[in-house]
Amino acid sequence: MKGYILFFGVLLMLFSCKETQKASSKSNSIKSTIDSTVVKKHLYTLASDKMQGRKPGTEGIEKAAQYIENEYKKIGLLPYENLPTYRQNFEYNGIKMSNIIGVLEGTSKKNEYVVISAHYDHLGMKKDGEGDRIFNGANDDASGVTGVLALADYFAKNKLNQRTILFVCFTAEEMGLIGSKYFGKGIDAAKFVAGINLEMIGKTPTFGPKTAWLTGFNRSTFGKIIQKNLKGTGYQLFPDPYPNYRLFFRSDNASLARLGVPSHTFSTSPIDTDKDYHKVSDEAETLNITVITQTIQAVAKGIESIVSGVDTPTRITMEK
Predict the structure, then answer these.
(1) Which domains does the chain possess?
(2) pLDDT per residue over 203-219, tens digit each?
(3) What number of other Cβ atoms are within 10 A of residue 19's Cβ?
(4) What is the 3 state secondary structure string of 171-227?
(5) Has residue 27 got a pLDDT over 80?
């Protein structure tokens, strides 16, 4: 009898050790986190005066494009499909434009794509007048581009993606989603399983700290998947609280959603009370770095099961 007790005791100890090793291995699998210092660097660079408001066709947006390209190169992202560089070049109304696309190739499901996007353009500068004339676009949408860059670095270092991730900084969103529409024309939408677009993530929403909202929440299961993945984190995701603004149709997610891709915009901005929206006062100093950092961390956790191939959101059917 004592022999049996000893035998089962040893088995129990071995099982316990294996479970501990599994838990330890899982906790150690995250090699890189999203750091607020890097977040601040990206934000303040992209929203600086030297970017001149990042209007398409200007020297300022060219500087922003080069900054994004350099970050993609440091991270080790690949160009998209047959493009020789990270730039997807095209022309619109006589203006030369570029979407900036970096690819983190997946493994077992590399032919399935997840898009993480934001727009890097803004309104440029006032033609005349005194005082501040630069529309720096810190919240709209340097904050979102900051998220794209931080998430690219995070997923590249942690190697969590079975699916291929496209990190896309769209141009000319402010002119009518021009960059994302151009991108959408050239894709096989059936291969795109999800899109998360980051728009204005620098301010605390009306729901309070550690919260965000998602446009088009009920149009697919994308939001419910994120909510499931965020359980226990202390961060909450809510449906878009501004249905009258029709925000689902007003950002770059719409260009993919119209093709059936479950693509939604993630935001924290209190739209109805944001006094800096499309004003020269939309400066980096008006934003909360902690909010941006926590939001990017929440996106990383929220979409983990999608990029890893575990969850697949339902497709979207768009009414006109």
Answers:
(1) 32-307 (3.40.630.10)
(2) 999 999 999 999 999 99
(3) 10
(4) CCHHHCCHHHHHHHHCCCHHHEEEEEEECCCCCCCCCCCCEEEECCHHHCCHHHHHH
(5) no
